[in-house]
Structure formats: C-alpha cells, structure tokens
Design brief:
Length: 189
Amino acid sequence: MVESNPPSTRVPARFSFTSISFLVGLLLFLLPFVEIRCNGETFATNTGIGLALGIDYKTTSQVKSLENPFNDKSEKKIVEREKGKLYVFALLAFLLGLAGLIISLTSNQLNKLLVFLGSQAALCLIILFIQIQMDVKQKPTGSDDNALGNTIKVAAVFTAWYYLSVISFIVAAALSYRPALRASSGSTG
C-alpha cells in the first residue's frame, strides 16, 4: 500500500517564500528606517513602526566639552526625544504587509490579491521616502540673519533596513505573480 500526503497538509514552496517575504518586510519595521543628519552627523533616528504610529524620533546630539572645545574625545552624547509625525503611507505599508502575511498563511487561491498587496506596500514605502525627503527640505535651518543657519545641512538618510523592507514586499509580490500568471493562463486555455 502506497501512502500519499493529503493535499490539505502539503504546502507549495512558493507559498512559504511569499509568507516569509511578507514576514521579513514586516519585521524590518522594528529596525531604524530613517536617520536625520546635520552636517553628516546623525541627529535623530526613527523605526518603521515609529513612522507608522507617530512615535517620537530618538535624537542623539553630541556636545563638546566647554573646558576643552578642540578635543574630539571629550564629546558627550545626549539622548532626547524629538516630536514624531504619523506618516499615513508608513501605516498603510505596514497594514498592507500584515494583510498580505495573513492571506498568504490562510489561502492558497488569492495570488492576484497578494500581488496587489505586496506591490502596494512597496509603493507606499516609496511614497514615504519622497514625503520624508520633502519634509526635511521644508524645515528651516536658521534665519537669514544668522550666518550659522546657512552652514547647517540637514538631510534624511534611509537605512538599509528600509530598502530591504521595500525589496521584500516586491519579492512577495513577484512570488505571488508567477502562480497567478499560471492560473490565469490555465483557465483561458
């Protein structure tokens, strides 16, 4: 007697990789997504969850000692909180990724929806990138009368974790697209 696995317990490899891609994209939200830099030095950081929920930025500024201002070794680090802003596109990307993970774990028939969710989550993260860059450019760095304000360069730098999250959502959409393509060509032919 030959035993075979029932089809309900067998999980296709694509299904597992799609779920893992969504899960990785979501877990990366726990890591720093963006650094705000002043003249090349990191001033503030925030995670993907922090951007999605409006949690305050974690600021780190270095203050030189007043006794020895020319000695770089005497800098003190001060950790504070900077007012956070809720970014709707970060929240949408997280929710779309979460929906994609749940659907990929529960259903094997909704590949077109998984393609949509993965691609929209990646698109929301790209829009978030543009939105934060625009927010940083709009912030005044100083008054026109103050010469110091003209020398301060503020920039938003996105971390590797942000880019990996975008890539993992794109990979999840691509892994879902291949079976959706086969299913639609099989039903028409």
